[in-house]
Amino acid sequence: MLYVNTWDRKSVQELLTVENLVAWLKTQNPKTKYSYMNGSTCLITRYLHDNGYTDAATGGYYVRIGNEREMHVIPTILNDIAKHDKPFLRFRTFGGALKKAEEVLVA
Length: 107
Fold this sequence. Notes:
Elements (H helix, E strand, L loop, with lengths): L11 H4 L2 H8 L7 E3 L7 H8 L5 E4 L2 E4 L5 E3 L2 H8 L7 E3 H13 L1
Helix pairs in contact: 2-5, 4-5
């Protein structure tokens, strides 16, 4: 029987939660750097790529998957976690994002 590996992946909206982002960040190297301003390598794009959406692209508060017409809204809290209190042009780390995300979960 034909099997497509994207059948088992979670929907974009299911993935865009603090809990799921934290679970993923815990599996990543905390020293890995990313640019918040680069939509092709930012935290949310990398997260979606690792979860089966290799054609995801982010921009501002939205995600587009491949050629889909629909834009998925990135929850404000996830955007806040991704930028975690650094100037826009500074690199951030997965460890810093994890710390911010865990603070959000406790609050």
